[in-house]
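Data availability (excerpt). The following record was deposited with the supplementary files.
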Amino acid sequence: MPLPPPTAKQARVIWLALTGLAIATLVALVAGIVWGLGQLLQVFSPVLWPLAIAGVLACLLDPVVDRFEKWGLSRAKAIVCVFGLALLILAAGFGSVAPSLVSETRQLVKRVPEYAAKLQNRLEHWNPTPPPILQRFFPRAVVPESPVIATNGEAFSLMATTNSPVAFTETLDPKTVQTAKDWLANALPVAGRWLFGQVGRVASWFGFLAGLALVPVYVFYLLLERRGIESQWTDYLPVADSKFKDELVFVLRAINGYLVAFFRGQVLVAMCDAVLYTTGFLLIGLPYAILIGASALVLTMIPFLGAFTICGTTLVISVVTFGDWLHPLLVLGVFGVVQSLEGLFISPRIMGGRVGLHPLAIIIAVMTGTTLLGGLLGGVLAIPLTAVLRVLLARYVWKNQTAAGQ
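Predicted structure:
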């Protein structure tokens, strides 16, 4: 006997269930892709970091190479001249900054324990005694006094005797020896795995350093083959000529434009922030100003998160160094001035709204990238990936909604 067709209400419920199942499947697929991307970034980070650095440097140096080409040089000679000019600038910069940077780094490393003790001491002094009313509801823990035992006319503290080292001269029994052997048998494999893990980390760092040594080679060939890559990369797509390929090329070109605009602009913004932070902290007399500025050059590549890291670090240094309220307020003043200059003048002139993301979207993207993709690389990639999502939504979702509304 055939089943009767579903009623309108049953059909609606069935379609809602199928829609929910499809949405859950898509969410699980996206989560799996993000998790897999994070794992790949962690595994291939020694390879990806040098390529990413080379790509950013190539984007920065490409306009300069084009300018040298307009002066009549060939592409290869223009690249060599730009490399020589960059080396001269780096040598001059390191010659003037590197001694102070090394000296401040050594001083900071030596004084980290002292700063930690000072910070703990100040935090303890900043913990005031609660009012008597609050003490009735939240009494402080009272450390019990050590019981005193009188022996041979002298008083001994029980806690002092129990906490003091005692020399045992008793002979170890066989059970103790067997327990020690069992513990060693279990601890040695764990120690071996830890040791091999450390060796693997050292090897990965050597691989990372070797990759950094290849960055100039990557940059040279990216600059040399830039026109060939731009004109022929579509021929290597594994897609036949069709409307789908045209759409794919359009999306990839838009994504590439966002990536180039973001990385080129963000590096220039980070350089301006580093100079401003260094100048401001030198003016207020904060120690390690050059080291903080050099750190800002790297950290402010991640918008907002890097700036807040710099602010928190400098506040701690000002508190433990001076111990007053004036210098933390001056640090906050420098931070506010730099962020205002960046938001009102530097970023609009350099970035020009080419990434086109709201500040709240940037904050959410950075936090999500550092959490899901892992570490600094995830935070750096979060904003261009969000811009890629914006391109796709503007092309295939918002466009259709606008057309439907019209």
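Summary of structural features: Residues 8-70 form the longest helix (63 residues).
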